């Protein structure tokens, strides 16, 4: 077995480590074999997060802190990461397939002349090497790729590679790297949070998504009720976004977010191919639609033919009752 030393970029958002950071550690372990997995945390104040990365399997954590790293910028994060790469000389790097990972991974790959496999949903050790699986053609096919030589880079799609079990008694070294972050071409002055922000849609385990059948913004309040009792997030079709029922940040599909939750509840969504491109790999799909011929039923695991304005409130009540009974 070839062993490799692998770096993982952890991501902190709104005061929490993103769950995909733990999935990235599991992915890195698969690549590393008996090699070392070291997590890199970049930001202004990152010390509070290192122990959690270790609990999820990182052997070591490298903290890179600087005032100019308070908010993620391409230039700043790249400077920090290149400094760590120069010092560590890793054999592999794993990023989350998030805005930050999608931005940094190709930069690093280009600079290091390394092989990058992006949007990976599975990693396995085979005799031909580390085999990365990634979806193609909006999830209709999968390809398997190996990096034949040199540094190996991957971005992993959230919610696909299970994290290792959390073990708070695991030990690991924590180090910090001194860095001057300068000559930034862009600086973020202020971050204005969207009011719909909570768990990242692409990381949500349960998504209640609404389409044009939801009729208006008030209809989306019903979906928010269901999402809340289930501990999930609300998403939307482009039809619903175009109609002004909700914010475009909720759009799922070919030109929106790609999601793979455990449960996807599609309410009043017809199932256009461009919508399926963003959610067809969800583990369980439940469709609520009054048209029994709607295309969404062709990919749904469970279908309810009926009026969502009757079904969604009934589901909310049912889940509330179940919780009372627990
Ligand atoms: P509709 O197709 O109008 O479907 C509404 C559904 O609601 C119907 O099936 C109807 O039976 C049902 N319904 C109505 N009333 C009720 C009720 N009371 N109870 C239950 N069911 C009800 N779309 C995306 O979603 N994401 C994308 O990223 C995306 N990208 C695109 C990119 C391109 C280049 C193009 C051309 C299109 C893209 N689209 C995308 C648009 C896509 O083609 C569809 O137009 C869109 O998905 C339709 O949205 P919808 O299902 O909400 O609306």
List the helices and strands and how they pair.
Blueprint: E1 6-10, E2 12-13, E3 16-17, H1 19-32, E4 37-43, H2 50-55, E5 60-65, H3 74-88, E6 92-96, H4 99-112, E7 115-120, E8 122-126, E9 129-136, E10 141-145, E11 152-156, E12 173-177, E13 206-210, H5 217-230, E14 233-236, H6 238-242, E15 263-267, H7 273-279, E16 284-289, E17 302-305, H8 308-325
Parallel strand pairs: 1-4, 1-6, 4-5, 5-12, 6-11, 7-11, 13-14, 13-15, 15-16, 16-17
Antiparallel strand pairs: 2-3, 8-9, 9-10
Helix pairs in contact: 3-4, 5-8
The structure holds flavin-adenine dinucleotide.
Can you give a write-up of this model?
The chain folds into 2 domains: about 5-175, Rossmann fold, CATH 3.40.50; about 200-325, TPP-binding domain (Rossmann fold, 3-Layer(aba) Sandwich). The protein is globular and about 60 Å long. The protein has 8 helices and 17 strands. Helices cover about 30% and strands about 25% of the residues. The mean pLDDT is about 95. The termini are far apart. The longest helix is centred in the last third of the chain and has 18 residues, at about 310-325. A 7-stranded parallel sheet has the order 7-11-6-1-4-5-12, sandwiched between helices. Strands 14-13-15-16-17 form a 5-stranded parallel sheet. The chain has a 3-stranded antiparallel sheet with strand order 8-9-10, covered by helices on one side. With about 325 residues, the chain is α/β, with parallel strands linked by helices. Helix 5 (about 215-230) packs parallel to helix 8. The structure holds flavin-adenine dinucleotide (FAD). Flavin-adenine dinucleotide binds near residues 238 and 278.
């Amino acid at each position: 077995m070839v062993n490799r030393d692998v770096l993982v970029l952890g991501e902190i958002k709104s005061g929490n480590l993103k769950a995909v950071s733990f999935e990235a550690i599991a992915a890195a372990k698969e690549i590393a074999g008996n090699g070392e997995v070291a997590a890199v945390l970049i930001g202004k104040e990152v010390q509070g997060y290192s122990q959690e990365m270790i609990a999820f399997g990182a052997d070591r954590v490298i903290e890179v802190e600087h005032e100019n790293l308070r908010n993620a910028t391409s230039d700043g994060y790249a400077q920090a990461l290149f400094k760590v790469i120069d010092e560590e000389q890793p054999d592999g790097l794993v990023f989350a397939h998030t805005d930050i990972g999608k931005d940094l991974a190709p930069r690093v790959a280009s600079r290091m002349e390394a092989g990058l496999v992006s949007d990976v949903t599975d990693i396995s050790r085979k005799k031909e090497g580390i085999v990365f699986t990634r979806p193609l053609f909006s999830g209709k096919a999968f390809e398997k790729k190996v990096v034949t030589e040199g540094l190996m880079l991957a971005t992993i799609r959230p919610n696909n590679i299970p994290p290792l079990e959390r073990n708070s008694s695991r030990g690991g070294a924590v180090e910090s790297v001194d860095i001057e972050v300068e000559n930034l071409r862009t600086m973020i002055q202020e971050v204005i949070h969207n009011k719909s922000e909570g768990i990242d849609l692409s990381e949500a385990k349960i998504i209640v998504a609404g389409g044009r059948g939801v009729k208006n913004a008030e209809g989306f309040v019903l979906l928010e009720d269901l999402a809340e009792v289930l501990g999930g997030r609300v998403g939307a079709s482009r039809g619903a976004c175009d109609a002004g029922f909700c914010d475009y940040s909720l759009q799922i599909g070919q030109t929106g977010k790609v999601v793979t939750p455990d449960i996807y509840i599609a309410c009043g969504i017809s199932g256009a191919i461009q919508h399926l491109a963003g959610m067809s790999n969800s583990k369980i799909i439940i469709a609520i639609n009054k048209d029994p011929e709607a295309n969404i039923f062709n990919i749904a695991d469970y279908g309810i033919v009926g009026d969502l304005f009757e079904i969604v409130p009934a589901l909310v009540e049912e889940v509330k009752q179940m919780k009372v009974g627990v």
